[in-house]
Amino acid sequence: MATINDNYLKLKAGYLFPEIARRVNTFTQLNPNAPIIKLGIGDVTEPLPEACRIAMIQAVEEMGNHSSFRGYGPEQGYTWLREKVAAQDFQLRGCDIDASEIFVSDGSKCDTGNILDIFGKNNTVAVTNPVYPVYVDTNVMAGNTGVGNDDGSYEGLVYIPISTENNFTPAIPAQKVDLIYLCFPNNPTGAVATKENLQVWVDYARANESIIFFDAAYEAFITNPTIPHSIYEIPGAKNCAIEFRSFSKNAGFTGTRCALTIVPKALKVKAADDSYVELWKLWNRRQSTKFNGVSYIVQRGAEAVYSEAGKEQIKLLVNFYLENARIIREKLTTAGLQVYGGINAPYVWVKTPHGLSSWDFFDELLQNVNVVGTPGSGFGSAGEGYFRISAFNSRRNVEEAMKRITNKFKV
Ligand SMILES: *Cc1c(COP(=O)(O)O)cnc(C)c1O
């Protein structure tokens, strides 16, 4: 008799985005002409940079000739891409990361889940609250948690609150933790971590032989020059941290798919026989066995991100979204709302007015001004009373949405 991975049955039905869709559908059925503007989902809206398109078109042509056709590439990614990443994303920032420590993949979402393949089942796992739901659900699937609670949390996970009370800085929990997910600039709050904040975690991880999973998907949005772009800017991080990067948000690759996972060779974890094992070897083995690499065409597109033209185009793209975020912050502040984030990140985290719940505020905005955002409580219990507004949209939509909110939604 076949059996299933019963851990999947512990998962609470994907609640947040289906529930948003349900409420929007109900509303549009009653109000078919309502001019709804969606500032909810974290997907980019602007087209691919020209440098990336030119590189991919050329790569497609190469695939059409015997002399330049490519079959399977290296599972870890092509050296020409890994070397550019090592030089420009890391060595230029003083991070001693070698091309061989960079693994090219088809997404950070999958890698943040896949990484659990090389870790044991007895690790205590810590996430922030609110949190990117992928970290939580992949741990449920891997059997690293107990049952789910009504508020969307799971037994056995350690939740570290990030809120206005601690300036969105996750504190070391009382309980010892082995695996820690940190995402900065943060989705959903738009908060950033200083070097000092991250040093505390690196010191903790080294003292406790813990591993930090550092998700830097939004590093390109950092405008404050003192904020670190990589955890490897922190002394000691090479001994305790894996970093995830993605071309999704800086270069608009959400539909093109390319990302990076950095596993330093200095990273060692104890095996059952008490010997220390290089995580690099395990991840390399895992990728070589279960993954056959990212398409040549897409890797050429990603490589173009590091060209002079590419860098310029990406800066324009990021600045476009950051200007949206600035407009959102300014208009919502004018409307009397308390806003956070949106300076080094494409997300603005809004305190709901009059003590409204996240979902009540969602309904108010939907019904009064036909603007859709994301209720903070969907990212965890500590997100209750907050609301996420995404800067990923056209300037016109952002300006129109903010006009409606300032006109009608005076606090
Ligand atoms: C968008 C996003 C990513 C990127 O995921 P991809 O699979 O590379 O598109 C990673 N982490 C967070 C927190 C994100 O919001």
Layout of secondary structure:
Blueprint: H1 16-30, E1 37-38, H2 50-63, H3 79-90, E2 102-105, H4 108-114, E3 125-129, H5 133-141, E4 158-161, E5 179-183, H6 195-208, E6 211-215, E7 241-246, E8 259-262, E9 268-270, E10 276-278, H7 279-290, H8 296-303, H9 308-334, E11 339-341, E12 347-351, H10 358-369, E13 371-372, E14 374-375, E15 386-390, H11 395-408
Parallel strand pairs: 1-13, 3-4, 3-5, 5-6, 6-7
Antiparallel strand pairs: 2-8, 7-8, 9-10, 11-12, 12-15, 14-15
The chain binds pyridoxal-5'-phosphate.
Q: What features would you describe in this structure?
A:
It holds the Pfam family Aminotran_1_2. This is LL-diaminopimelate aminotransferase. Belongs to the class-I pyridoxal-phosphate-dependent aminotransferase family. LL-diaminopimelate aminotransferase subfamily. GO terms for molecular function: L,L-diaminopimelate aminotransferase activity; pyridoxal phosphate binding. Substrate binds at residues 15, 42, 109, 132, 187, 292, 388. The protein has 411 residues and is an alpha/beta fold. It folds into two domains: 6-47 and 309-408, Alpha-Beta Complex (Aspartate Aminotransferase, domain 1), CATH 3.90.1150.10; 52-307, 3-Layer(aba) Sandwich (Aspartate Aminotransferase, domain 2), CATH 3.40.640. Helices cover 35% and strands 14% of the residues. It contains eleven helices and 15 strands. It has helices at residues 16-30, 50-63, 79-90, 108-114, 133-141, 195-208, 279-290, 296-303, 308-334, 358-369, 395-408; strands at residues 37-38, 102-105, 125-129, 158-161, 179-183, 211-215, 241-246, 259-262, 268-270, 276-278, 339-341, 347-351, 371-372, 374-375, 386-390. A seven-stranded mixed beta sheet has the order 2-8-7-6-5-3-4, with helices on both faces. The protein has a four-stranded antiparallel beta sheet with strand order 11-12-15-14. Strands 1-13 form a two-stranded parallel sheet. Helix 2 (50-63) packs antiparallel against helix 8. The longest helix is centred in the last third of the chain and has 27 residues, at 308-334. The mean pLDDT is 96. The structure holds pyridoxal-5'-phosphate.
